[in-house]
Amino acid sequence: MDVSAATIAAAATTETGLRLLGAGLAAGLGVVGPGVGMGVLFGSAIESIARQPELRGEIRLNMFIGIGIIEALALYALVVALILLFVVT
């Protein structure tokens, strides 16, 4: 069975395209969840501060801790996308 150079090139191009598609989906969809979570977090924090202004410092501290966790999730999605681009062969 003879495999031509064109067949090998087409397979390599398809593989590269699928890796790029996977990386784009990992980065794009991986940011949707943290984005929604951050919106809910900010909305809840503002509502909580409006209801109990005397707890503003404690609510703000908890909000910043939540922001750090949410940002870590977005960075994990970026790492997965970079792994798909450069490590997976």
Give a short synopsis of this structure:
The protein is mainly alpha-helical. Helices cover 88% and strands 0% of the residues. The model has no long low-confidence stretch (mean pLDDT 87).
* Main sheet overview: none
Work out the number of β strands: 0
Structural class: mainly alpha
Separation, N- and C-terminal Cα atoms: 25 Å
* Spatial extent as radius of gyration: 22 Å
In what range is the share of β-strand residues?
under 5%
Shape: rod-shaped
User: Please, what is the oligomeric state?
Assistant: single chain
The ordered H/E elements are HH
Mean pLDDT: 87
Helical content band: over 70%
What this model shows, in words?
With 89 residues, the chain is an all-alpha fold. It has 2 helices and no strands. It has helices at residues 5-51, 56-86. Helix 1 (5-51) packs antiparallel against helix 2. The chain starts with a helix and ends with a helix.
Which helices and strands appear, and what pairs or packs with what?
Layout: H1 5-51, H2 56-86
Helix pairs in contact: 1-2
Summarize this structure as a short list of keywords or feature phrases.
2 helices; 89 residues; mainly alpha; rod-shaped; 0% strand
